[in-house]
Amino acid sequence: MKKLATISIGDELLNGSKLDTNCNFISNELNNVGYETVMRLTAGDTKASILSSLNYAIKNADLVTITGGLGPTHDDVTKVALCDYFETSLKYYDDVFNEIQTWIVSLGRNPNILDKSQGEYPENATLLHNSKGTAKGILLSKDGTIVLSMPGVPREMKAILVEAFIPKFTSLSDERIVSLNIKTIGITEMMLFKAIHDVLSLYNDITVAYLPRHTGVTVRLSQRTLDEQRSQRYLDSIALKMKEMLPNQIYAIGKMTLSSVVGALLTKHHLTVSTSESCTGGLVASHITDVPGSSYYFNTSYITYSNEAKIKLLDVSESSLKEHGAVSEETVSQMLDGTLKYSGADYAIAISGIAGPDGGTIEKPVGLVYIACGSKTKKTIKRFQFFKDRIINKEAAASAALNLLRLEIIADYGE
Amino acid sequence: MKKLATISIGDELLNGSKLDTNCNFISNELNNVGYETVMRLTAGDTKASILSSLNYAIKNADLVTITGGLGPTHDDVTKVALCDYFETSLKYYDDVFNEIQTWIVSLGRNPNILDKSQGEYPENATLLHNSKGTAKGILLSKDGTIVLSMPGVPREMKAILVEAFIPKFTSLSDERIVSLNIKTIGITEMMLFKAIHDVLSLYNDITVAYLPRHTGVTVRLSQRTLDEQRSQRYLDSIALKMKEMLPNQIYAIGKMTLSSVVGALLTKHHLTVSTSESCTGGLVASHITDVPGSSYYFNTSYITYSNEAKIKLLDVSESSLKEHGAVSEETVSQMLDGTLKYSGADYAIAISGIAGPDGGTIEKPVGLVYIACGSKTKKTIKRFQFFKDRIINKEAAASAALNLLRLEIIADYGE
Predict the structure, then answer these.
(1) Chain B residue closest to A56 (CA)?
(2) Number of structural domains in chain B
(3) Which of A194, A263, B87, B152 has the fewest CB within 10 Å, making it most exposed?
């Protein structure tokens, strides 16, 4: 495989105020056309820092991508560094500037916002079309290494890379990496490792990575290959063996999310779902509606944060709330009944918990969440003890709830 | 300032399947004790890749942090590379292993899950306590540069860095960087730049960065300083000047989020809010409840995805839905009335739009969203044309809605 190094430019990336997502996109896309990422660098907004990174990267790679450091708010420091490195100078391209101007006018915007410098590029560079913005991609090469410089704005970088660079400047090299994600929920990384490591280690021609999150652990299988389809079938067959070993914990093989798996089950069996949410505050419903086409199985949900709302919208009994508290088995059970009754949905989810940071007691600490899931004929209620962080608790509870629904539908209707 | 280089280890970071958040945390924390991040590197899970990165980083920094490549699922490749680089070898520490074993037992877990290798560390290393896991921090030094190696699991890295490394091994150096974020919404990066650049450039002793997102642009002011408090006051005074120039667009100076700003306004003026959401599917309510203490001003919300739910829960008129469609000024206006009526809240937000990818027409394209916001006495309805991506449209609409509420409360009650 050919070797790729990525360089991200930006003080805001270095000082920790902004998360870099460009490199992940670039690595994924170029991996599909035979590039393996061998290093990733982040450099500051100075010429010296960019040049040092470029010198180091170019020694180790066949292709170096640079993102950021272009445009008026960055003083175009990348263009200047490129000119230095490739011993050339900036040239003003009248036709490029006119093209940008025409494009800006076609969007109904004022062309006077443009600066003449936006028509300047290193002499000898190949310029790549940017369908989403004014800064072109810049392609230069030296000693057999190609350098591709793009703006840092993700949608512009993506347009240049996918529309202009990949179709014209890459060829499918022989070797590439094929990967497959096995997504689990309800099992810790260590337990998962213990459960599948011995079997997985028999396949000594694949690479295995464990990627833990608060909402579940993903196992990524990868293989270098000359035959993509054969490798895909091979990884699929291994993943199916894993699924036989952990049928409940593995919810997806491949790209599907927990919400889209649940959505596919609901669609397949012509079912609908509704939620009533206290501590998650609408997050479960939001996840459900992240899936295109969710209007086929999702009509309505109730966010009942206060006791009063639980009583008024879902018929939760006032005396039961007093006796057992809002965070209890009894309350989520009654919330579920009310949700099924008023929404008319086939399945419902009801959640109540203590998200934190305040509101915890010794008996009911922060992170305690009750989730009820079921239909008019069957109900499952589970107690979870999650973490100390409010946002993480909301995410963990939402995932656990969707997973309960998934298991419930499978138990009732099959996969 | 002292110079920091960070190295992240992991094929899953390089190949784009996992986002690296550790470096941002490390940069932020160490910046507070006088380190400036000069480079960031990501290396693969091999000894050669780690050694190459270490060699490059150590030339440019006073402190190099390494995260990842420790533990049984990574074959402890980092430990081996450190031994190579520092010309030492792994040594088994009985007391370390016993300590880990005791800790595991105290958590009620089985100590047999431990491997003897978890007691092995490079000879001569200083080991740093990890309150959240079994892998210790490893501190080594060479030619005046300190190397700190930590596990890749964020909570373990954070525990070692914040509890063990920073208090004992850093001293407040004289110079540091003080930063302040000015957060805006409802103005593009270019318009913002045009509006404030001339004034900001008069302050030639500060650095300015523009950080655009779909939900708004943040302007980050930074200054190197010997006097932290003085610099903070200085940046505060500049931010206040900006706020005078863009009173509506700047919603926060500092760390507050849009939801927490709205929450503070509601709390201050003893007001409550409720939402009814179609295309955002509960995301606005979820954002509102991300804020600790939101139960003081938030009781209930309605997710009315289908027309039927809009009619049943919020009294939206069936004939009006037929005439104008679900995505219209009329519909969100009626949703707002119903939400105010049934929730009893002082303010309400109502949203209906076409999130995509399907459902768009020429008159009502994907990304079209109507938002109504108001109280029983006053109502504002706005039409937005967002983007092509479903998830981004949900986020953009949720932020726009919270901002409408913010402006509405300020207009009625003041800041």
Answers:
(1) B56
(2) 3
(3) B87
